[in-house]
Please model this.
Amino acid sequence: MNTTAPLAERLRPQTLDEVVGQQHLLSKDKVFRRTIDSGRIPNMIFYGPSGCGKTTVARIIAQNSGMKLHKLNGTSASTGDIRDVMSDIGTFGSQNGILLYLDEIQYLNKKQQQSLLEYIEDGSITLIASTTENPYFYIYNALLSRCTVFEFKPLTADDTEQGLKNAAKKIEQADKIKITFEKGALRKLAVACGGDMRKALNGLEFAISAAPEKDGKRKLTLEAAGQVAQRSSMRYDRAGEEHYDIISGYQKAMRGSDVDAALHYLARLLVADDLVSACRRLVVCASEDVGLAYPQILPIVKAAVDIALQVGLPEAQIPLADAVVLVCLAPKSNAAAEAIFAAMDDVRKGNSGPIPRQLQNKHFDGADADVKGQNYLYPHSYPNHWVQQQYLPDILKNTTYYTPGENKTEQSFKEYWEKIKGKK
Model:
């Protein structure tokens, strides 16, 4: 065992049975496992977060395939590296085929991905690629259509704890040392890693290395596990999919009036120091999902956001929590949001037309005008400050975008205007 390599690399499983988690793929009764065990390796893309086993599974498949293995990483691979793989096609060493394991494929540009198509199509190269980003957004469609995508899920705390136990046994055998664990120490590491086995193993390595050796034994204490686990459970990338999942959950929890869930997602944003996203989605939700059901919420939320941005973290958590709870518990209406969505859709479709003459900002008519004069009716000159006249362009005359919500506020508006307009 190479003692200079990181623990996660040294203890990487060598068979599919040693891999923890991903049983929706690796159980012997699953199609994925049966296909791999048959020896017929299709083109595949593994999609999932870091540290969940994508690279490990790909390496095991590659090593047992009988094909000549090439490994590339999208973060560093050049077009020349890809050409080197292609140059091996048809050589004596690749008579059983070539398997290209391409890690972080999302970092290859479109041209580099396209260069693989012909060889994947005719079977000259079998591709196993992995990515932490959604492949349907980051991988060229023509390449994607030639591969089967398998999603790898974050490891559960139970999966991770079992992986740590397996790792500890291998360390004992390699280093000829006995490792013991204080009650709850392994569990703390397993929970803190957020489903990332690599992170958990790195924490284990750090804690065991720091533990004093006595009579050929080392002990992982709960305190040491806590120290290496500090803030390590955050799986967050402000430019990645996890970021968008969290802010999506944040707004949907507020929209769904679930206070506890909304506060949970707010906490995840704040622990990741993403104050901007926490504030932005809060204001959007107050406008879009509470809206006219409680119009006063907008200045209240705006004030809370202003305070949060002024005082910064950690104090910002308090006004933001107040505002999130308020948004959750407020009555909901998306009537105004739906109305502007419908109006925008009409404009994008070209349903607009000339502004009615009485609304135009001009006071002289050309010789060809059928009706002279602007003929605008000033509402304040009429009873109740309202008068019937056409405001929409002719093509959209009588179009209705806004339908009042069932809440008390909008229904009171509706009742008032029906009375003024003589509909009651």
Summary: Residues 46 and 130 are 4 Å apart (CA to CA). The longest helix spans residues 157-175. The mean pLDDT is 84. The radius of gyration is 31 Å.
